[in-house]
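Quarterly update from the structural biology core.
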Amino acid sequence: MKAATAGGAASVTPPPATSGKRKSVTGTRRIIAFGFLLPALILLGALVVYPIGFSVYRSFFDKAGTGFAGLDNYVRLFTDDTILTAIKNNLIWVVVAPTVATALGLIFAVLTERVRWGTAFKLIVFMPMAISMLASGIIFRLVYEQDPDRGVANAVWVGVHDTFAESSTYPRARPLPVHPLKAAGGGAYVTKEPVRLGQQVNLPLIGVAPAQMPKDAQLAKAPATAPDRVTGTAWLDFTRGGGGKPNVIDSKESGLGGLTIEAVKDGRVVDSTKAAADGTFSLSAKADGAELRLPASNFREQYNGVDWLGPNVVTPAIIGSYVWMWAGFAMVLIAAGLASLPRELLEAARVDGANEWQVFRRITVPLLAPVLAVVTVTLMINVLKIFDLVFIIAPGNSLDDANVLALQLYQSSFGTDADLGIGSAIAVFLLLLVIPVMLFNIRRMRKEQGR
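Predicted structure, tokenized:
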């Protein structure tokens, strides 16, 4: 406050003195603030702090919980083969799953940015996030079925395989000892005697179920005789209901249409043909004096695809189901970051002659680095506690090969031979694995806020 003086100058009046008690900005007493926080602190202590403290305490005791075990439970984490498999699989999960999901999310976000149907595509990719882990596990348990008629993955895989390598129609066909054929090695069969022009050659086989015969199969019959050719019949020497004779074409027996027959001289194929629907075939004069061979390609086992849930590929298969669920999450976050990028930088780079790949690699990705870090770290924390998908998708004979720490924690704590000491040690170990990732995320968030 200003007051006039004799010389005309103004003097400043000091503000009134305040009391010694200092109030908060809101004027609320600390005891009242603590009262509001107390329910949350009680829940935090009961649901977070106490379980962590008890787990640490219990991890130093034996199975019964009465004897002090020291660090024995922690030593067992790195000596037990089953737990070591879980640790190895967790490492694979942490490295592969977040990387692949983030990469796919980045690709989807960038490629759908300029298309009119991009929003619809993002919606479709994000939809798996609305499905629970339990439902996703059941879905992919069916997708990975070994039978191509039931499992989508093997249906596609077998379809692609058969496009380039057609499977045999008669995978288990074979001759009897009384038949004029003998094994030639490698799954092939040859005639016991060389053939001659004008000869009718019988090539009977068994081992094919009548129900598995081709739909266009016809009743077998003897071929017409040709003096300048070698003719014959390849047929299924089996009469349903019995009554047939070996080496004789009976009235109810079917021809092996499509069977490949080769004429071989001195180890060299001089002529070849395929049997007609009624089993008849004809070879040129080159076959005179040759042995007739049924190559192994006639009897190749039908390709049934990949054993997705077998011990070798069960972990990558389950990671694939996880990526299917979480790629949409990564895409949405990255798309939000992509929308906030300064467009003038991108356009300036294009004006300077940079192609789209250079713009993406040198400008888009560096500017999106904070967002990519958020997505990757979030997914890393998420996969460290993965449990549902592994427990549901992996069958019993592959469960140990697909084991992860969260699943091992459940089995050790609540399985048939429960050991809460080991289970608590695994829980503490998981906590120690999560803490560095959380600290990195907190540090990065503080750095972003300080800019």
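The chain has two domains: 72-154+308-449, 181-299.
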